[in-house]
Every structure is written in C-alpha cells, then in structure tokens.
Specification:
Largest sheet of chain B: 10 strands, mixed
Structural class of chain B: alpha+beta
CATH architecture of the largest domain in chain A: 2-Layer Sandwich
CATH superfamily of the largest domain in chain B: CV3147-like domain
Number of strands of chain B: 17
Strand content of chain A: 25-35%
Number of helices of chain A: 13
Oligomer: heterodimer
Helix content of chain A: 25-40%
CATH class of the largest domain in chain A: Alpha Beta
CATH topology of the largest domain in chain B: CV3147-like fold
Strand order of the largest sheet of chain A: 3-2-1-4-9-10
Radius of gyration of chain B: 19 Å
Structural class of chain A: alpha/beta
Shape of chain A: globular
C-alpha cells in the first residue's frame, strides 16, 4: 500500500493506493506552515481507510514549495556564486542576465577565479590558491554559508569544483555547497544557474524534508519517504536535501502521470484547470513531453529537463470582463470562496458564469440568477475558445487527440472541445497530482566515457544502459518494467576522435518487494 | 535602418539563429555582451555597401571555432575590440568600418561589439548570408579578397599573426590555432577596400536579420503558423522560396568534434507515421536533408530546424533526442549559385557524392 501526497500552492491532496486501486483520497487547504496541512491530509486518509500502518510501504510526496520559493523569491538563502573560468568570460559575471529581484534575494555575491578545463582536457588556467583564499575570506566576512561552484567543462573534469569545495569546507565547516557538475549537461552559464538556485534552497530543503519525515513518523508511519522530481521519478528524502532544485515542475509532471494512470491513455493532451491557470501538457508514451528550449525558472535560464507546459490564464477564479469576451488572466484564486458572487462576494468569476448557465450547482445559484444570458453564453464560448487554442498549439499533429480534464476547474468545460477527439473526466481527477506522486517510478542513471573506436555505438549504449538498470534495481525498481527513457552523448574532442561521454537514464516501476532508502 | 541600438539586439540575435542553419553557436552570451556594450557606448552606425568610400579600409571581425566549445569557454566583453586593435597595430592602419564574416549566429553580433568599442560603423551586409563552417566559403574569399594578414586572439589574450598563400591554407592554419587555443578564438581577417567589399558582400543582411527576428518574435507559436509570415519576409528578399520540409521527433543524433567541427547526423521521425523519416547531415550547420535516398534540400540553400511548438530555431549543438521539431528550407542568395561559389559550397565540396539542385527545382 502506498500513500501519495501533493503539496500545491492552494491545496494539499492525499491518496491511498492499494495495488493501483484508489482506496481513499482527500483534498485539504495548504496550511501556511505546510506541515500541519500534510498532517491533516494524512489524518484524513489514514482515518478513512482504517489502515494498518504496517501495510504502508511507501509515502511519496510531490511538492511545489521549492518552485514557489524561486518564483516568489522567498526562503532563498544568500548564496555565493564562484565560477572557475578566468581569463575566459572576463567582465561577464555569474547572474548577469538574472532578473533584478531574484538576484537581490540571493545577493550578488559573484566571484570569478582562474581555473577550469578546456575541451581537450588541458587546464584552461591553473587554480590560484591566493585567489581562493581571498574569496573564502570574503565569504566569512559576509557570513555566507551557501555556495555554488561551477567550472568550465566540469561535466568532463569535476576536479576544480571539488578542490574549491574542499577548501571552502575547511574554512567554513557548516557551508552548504552545490557543485555544478552533477547537473550534467554542457552549458556553463545554465549549469551554474542551476547550481546557484539549488544552493540558495538548501537550508529551506533541510526544513521541508525534516517536516515531511516528521509528519509521517508522528502518524506512526515508519516506511521510506520519497519525493518526486521533475522527470516523474522519485528521490529519497536524503537526496532532496542535497538537490531540492530537481523537484522543479514535478507538480505538472505528477498531474500528467496521474491522468495517464486514471485513464490508461499513454498518448493524450492533459488539461489541468486550477483556480488561476489551465496547464496544458502532452502525454507521450505515458510520460510528459519535455520542453525543447532552454528552460527558465523564475526568469533564470537553466538546463533542467522540464515538461513542456503551456499555461493559459483560465481557472475557476478567473475574472470575467467585457460582457464575457475577456476572461482572466487576473483571478481571485483561492479567495473564490469569499469573493465569487455565488459565495456572497461581488466579483464575477468563471465559476459564477458556469453556475448561471445552470450546468453546475455550486454555492448560491440565486446570486447569479439575474446575469444576462447573453453574457453567460459569450463567456462560456470564450472559455472553450481559449482552451481550444491552447490544446491546438500543444497537439503533436493535426489530428484530434483525446483530452483528459483534471483539476478542480475541470467543471468549467461543459461543451465539446473542437481540438479534442474525445474529452475524458476520470473519477478522482481532482487529485491527479497525488496519484501521479503515488505511482511515480524509480529512475537509474549511469554515465561513462566510451570510445566509439573501440566499441560500436550500439554496444556502448547497451552497456551503459545495463549499468543504469542495475542502479534502478538497487534503488527498488522491478527489473521487468525497466525501460530506457533518455540517451545523452557528449563528444570529447581531440583526446581521441570518437571519445564520448554517454549518459543513459532508465526508469521502472517500484518493485513489490520493498526497496528505496534505508 | 541606419543604426543598431541596444534594443535591436534581441531581434538581431533571434533572426541570426534562424539564418545560422544550425551553426554559428548560441548567441545568448554575445547578445548580453552586445547589449551591455551598446548601452555603455551608444548605437552603432550601419552603412550599406554603396555608402562606403571606395578607399575605405574595411576589417571583418568574428569568432572561429567549434560552437560546442563556447557553451563552456565563455566570451569576454573586450575581446572583439582588442582583436581589432591588435590587428590595426600589426598592419599599421586604422579601420574605417567593421564587417561581419557571417550573419548567422554570434558572428552577427561580434562586429557590432568591436565597432562600438572603437566608435566606427559596421557594414550592413555580411560574407555568407547565413553561417558556413569554413573561411573559403565566404563571399570575400570567393571574390578574391586575400585572407591575410590576419590576426587571431585567444581567450587568454595570446595572439597569432597569419600570412598564407591561399584561403584553403589559411583556413587550415587558423583552425589549427583555434584547436590549440581552447577551441574558440576571435579573428580579424580578409581586410579589404570599400571598392572590393561592394563586389564581395551579401548586402543588407544586418537590417534584414533584425526584421526577421521581429517576425519570429511576433509570430512565436506553432511552426505550422509561421510559414506564411516567413514567406512574406523571405520571398521578396535576396533569399527567395521558403518550404516546409518535415515535422517530427528527433529519434537519433550523433555528432563528434572532428578537426574542430561538430560533424554527424540527426534522424527525425514523423509524428504520425514512424516509417517517414528525415535525415539531417551536420558539419557545424545542417547541410543536407534527405528522406530515404531523396535529397529534399542541400547546401548552399538554408536548412533550418525550429522547435515545433514555439518556432524557436534550434542550433545543431542543442538538438537532442526526443525533441519535436519542424524543418524548413530557404533558397540561398544568387551569389552562392554561381559556378565559382558552388566550387566551395556545393554538397560535393562537403564530401557528399551529389550535385547541388536549387530548392525551387526539387519537387516538394
């Protein structure tokens, strides 16, 4: 038995799954301290299901807290960005293209030092201990404990990052350090940005993870706690303390994966309609389609792989204006239950229009009885047009596709969507995110330097895939379900033509045999 | 348009990636450098070739190297100006204007940074009308302008001076220096008079690229919807026909850096019909597009890959397994269809055993 929990900006949802069947689910408001909301949700589902706590094998949590912290520029610790790359990139410091507000929240503690490597494995410039000492003195003087370190070509040669980290740790034993090379891909600026964002979240990650684990323990759950990451796989709680940034966009990923499980459809458009936006994503082979372009998080360029999501400003709380011809993007959000007309407020929202049309019975319908029927009809037409345009933009081809409607705002869809071959509203669609978290899989990654001169590419890929599979199995995946989801090859020029860094990622279902962290 | 201001740079950079046909590097950092430089130093005057004096001294300045390298070996703010000044010192003459090697990619921006640093104009035009991997493929070289004296400047400020008999030898030597100096260098070369430039330039491409970037920005969205706006800007221009070649998913991509170039191929599969594939051959740029044995577009015509959902052009080095893309082909300027030009830019000159067929003569 598994428990999936989704902590969203507005709601905290929980589901209990037994052999893929939903035993019970709940939807509660996210509390200001987050933890009490998680505990409430746990209480509800544990009470409802009268569970034997010993039967709960896993708790999986998806959380938007880290994304929201970046977007809202809060809970971010002052963080130093140390780049090892001089004399290249002179006068082009870290964070040069960051939005001013987030740069200020993190602080512009930027340092550029000599170091790093060239593409051919020769040093770009030697590390300079005196320079490093100066930076460490400055960190101590400014009382900065969070540090991101990025060096040129560190995915191929991480030693300079590791060396500087050791020096910093000697001087500041409680420093929280994020190195850039585990973020993998080439692109120094984007990798450095990922490391800075991650480092700035580390103290918050400590608190969040501790509170999740404590919430589970206090409710008598002794099983492992996993947290979902942006590619739809799971991380152990300990891993999240080190890499909170890998949770970015796990919300939309979980929503898409949950919709896939609820309908059994592997290829479909998923529209998650909330209070403020409709997030449109695409399922391909049961996984979210990934974005092609450099992904911005809170306005910062990063090299994370993220689901391709089109957000349009239409949700249950969206404001209706111009006789129904204009809807959103402004919304009353979670204040719908005070400000919406059907709840006694005086703001005309998308939900009020729905109730006025007679197609839903929410709140007090009498409050919208006097609305002009023409306005109601126009507004409903506008909403469906907005969704149709968005779905059309995301469709992989000209053919109509099934559309899965999830989220609390899905009730707004009352007519056929032209862009859809069919519209599905699965039961439990309101808690699709929590289901997505509960069914999340275990990933395994392996990378190795290979020479395509010494072995064929097919053999090399097969061999690295085998390593990745072994890791996934060790982490608790069922070998029979493992499949390769990503291949990344980085040519290492000149050292030997054909030398390549190959990285393979596989995923599999969690084995019924209990796995995971200790 | 008679000058480039800081607020034009985003459109110029976006348009330049489209014209780079997959090469030219990611101009993101050059874009930041150009914006910061123009903000600090003011706008740069741009001159059409005919506005230059015949005896003006024009110096092309740009980057040379493997695009993948510049993802890690970052450019420095003052590199273009220092390269130009070092060159001027060597030849003992001040430049009257800076020109661009290639309008595709970061080399559309480097000349602006050099010129702003020195307070001189930039030629509204370039030596490729797109991006190509080698110096002898430039209009300047094809028109007989000598590549040397040339000066190369590396990330650490080391310089090398070149004096060679032919462009081919020059190209080999400058590549060797680039490979030895970290993989990416800044170079001043093919210096010429205003009179020579007028015979040897693809005119108007700087202002055209700003306008192209504006079209791409204003029509951001599904690739299917951008074909008509693209036709509207390209068809009356020196380029000509625009054609949709393929939409699909990248199912394989394999490139290696060989001799300082990104070389390899990518395979795309149709969204609806896995039997339909398009194969792209890459040497820094997309050179050849084939469905099975049939060539549907080839160099010197432009092959451009864009993100299927947003129409953002994608560089070869950023193309990855699983991406969903649309491929367009665009006719090249007439300059490149002359026998002299085709000797260096036809598929055969890139080692493919086939002759160039202009895009409009290929059945679509």
């Amino acid at each position: 038995m598994r428990i999936g929990i989704d902590v969203g900006g507005t709601h905290t949802d929980a589901v209990v799954l037994l052999d893929d069947q939903i035993v019970t689910s709940t939807k509660a408001l996210t509390s200001a301290d987050v933890m009490s909301g998680v505990e409430d949700a746990l209480d509800t589902v544990l009470g409802d299901a009268e569970l034997d706590l010993q039967q709960v094998e896993l708790v999986m949590i998806g959380t938007t807290q880290f994304t929201n912290a970046i977007v809202e520029r809060r809970e971010l610790a002052p963080t130093a960005a140390i780049r090892l790359g001089l004399p290249s990139g002179n006068e082009l410091p870290p964070m040069i293209d960051w939005p001013e507000d987030i740069a200020e929240a993190v602080g512009r503690h930027c340092f550029m030092l000599h170091g790093g490597y060239l593409y051919d494995g020769r040093p770009l410039a030697p590390l300079d201990d005196a320079e490093i000492d100066d930076v460490i003195r400055e960190l101590v003087a400014r009382d900065i404990r969070n540090v991101a370190i990025a060096a040129a070509f560190s995915p191929m040669k991480p030693e300079p990052e590791v060396y500087v980290a050791e020096r910093v740790r000697q001087a500041i034993p409680d420093a929280n350090i994020t190195l850039s090379h585990p973020f993998g891909r080439l692109g120094l600026v984007e990798r450095e940005n990922a490391a800075i964002l991650n480092a700035s979240l580390l103290p918050f990650a400590d608190r969040v993870v501790a509170s999740f684990v404590e919430a589970a323990r206090r409710r008598g759950l002794t099983c492992p706690v996993f947290i979902s990451q942006n590619d739809g796989t799971l991380m152990s709680a300990e891993f999240v303390r080190e890499f909170p940034a890998l949770t970015f966009a796990s919300g939309p990923t979980n929503s898409l994966r949950g919709a896939c499980r609820l309908t059994g459809l592997e290829d479909a458009i998923v529209v998650d309609i909330g209070g403020t936006t409709s997030d449109i994503g695409v399922l391909q082979n049961g996984f979210p389609r990934e974005s092609n372009v450099v992904v911005e998080v809170g306005g910062v360029r990063t090299n994370f792989r993220m689901p391709d999501i089109l957000a349009i400003g239409l949700g249950g709380g969206s404001l209706v204006a111009d006789e129904g011809r204009c809807i959103g993007p402004r919304s009353v959000g979670h204040r719908l239950v005070q400000e919406g007309m059907i709840f006694g407020g005086d703001t005309l929202t998308a939900t009020d229009v729905l109730v006025a049309s007679g197609q839903a019975d929410i709140g007090n319908p009498a409050a919208v009885a006097s609305l002009d029927p023409g306005l109601v009809q126009t507004a409903q037409g506008t909403m469906h047009e907005m969704l149709d345009r968005g779905i059309d933009a995301m469709k992989p081809s000209g053919h109509a596709m099934p559309v899965i409607l999830v989220g609390g705002g899905a009730v707004l869809v009352t007519q056929d969507l032209k862009a859809a071959s069919e519209s599905l509203r699965p039961e439990h669609a309101g808690v699709a995110n929590a289901i997505g978290a509960a069914i999340a899989q275990i990933g395994g990654e392996a990378e190795r330097m290979v020479s395509y001169r010494q072995m064929t590419r097919d053999d090399a890929l097969a061999s690295v895939t085998q390593d990745a599979t072994a890791r996934a199995v060790a982490a608790g995946a069922d070998p029979a379900t493992i499949r390769r989801v990503d291949i990344e090859e980085t040519a290492i020029p000149y050292m030997d033509e054909g030398a390549t860094r190959v990285r393979v990622k596989v995923i599999g279902e969690i084995s019924s045999r209990r796995g995971g962290d200790k | 348009m008679n000058r480039i201001e800081a607020h034009h740079i985003d459109d110029l950079a976006l348009g330049s990636v489209f014209l780079a046909t997959g090469g030219g590097g990611d101009p993101h950092l050059n874009r930041i450098i150009a914006i910061e430089t123009l903000k600090a130093r003011g706008p740069v005057e741009i001159l059409l070739p005919e506005e230059l004096d015949d005896d003006a001294f024009v110096v092309p300045v740009g980057s040379v190297g493997a695009p993948t390298v510049s993802l890690e070996l970052l450019p420095s703010m003052d590199e273009p100006r220092r390269t130009l000044e070092a060159f001027e010192k060597q030849v003992g003459r001040r430049a009257d204007a800076v020109a661009s090697f290639e309008i595709g990619g970061g080399n559309s921006l480097v000349p602006l940074v050099a010129a702003a640093g020195r307070g001189i104009p930039v030629v509204n035009g370039d030596g490729m009308g797109r991006a190509y991997p080698e110096a002898q493929m430039m209009t300047y070289a094809i028109s007989g302008v000598r590549p040397t004296p040339a000066l190369a400047f590396d990330y650490a400020g080391n310089t090398a001076l070149f004096s060679t008999q032919s462009t081919e030898v020059y190209e080999y030597h400058i590549r060797s220096f680039a490979a030895a100096a970290g993989g990416m260098i800044t170079v001043a070369e093919h210096a010429m008079s205003g009179a020579q430039l007028k015979q040897a330039v693809i005119p108007g491409t700087l202002s055209f690229t700003v306008e192209l970037g504006q079209v791409l920005r204003e029509n951001r969205g599904p690739a299917a919807d951008i074909l008509d706006p693209l036709k509207a800007i390209f068809e009356p221009s020196i380029y000509g026909e625009v054609r949709h070649l393929f939409s699909g998913k990248v199912i394989d991509k394999s490139t290696r850096i060989i001799g300082g170039y990104d070389i390899g191929e990518a395979t795309l599969e149709d969204f609806d019909d896995p039997g339909q594939t398009l194969c792209l051959n890459i040497k820094n740029e997309y050179l050849l597009a084939r469905t099975g044995d049939r060539v549907v577009a080839s160099v010197p015509d432009l092959i451009v890959t864009v993100d299927h959902e947003t129409s953002t052009p994608i560089n070869c080095e950023r193309l990855r397994y699983g991406q969903r893309v649309t491929v367009f082909a665009v006719g090249c300027p007439d300059f490149y269809r002359s026998p002299e030009a085709l000797r260096v830019v036809s598929p055969r000159s890139f080692g493919f055993d086939l002759d160039y067929v202009p895009l409009e003569d290929i059945e679509s």
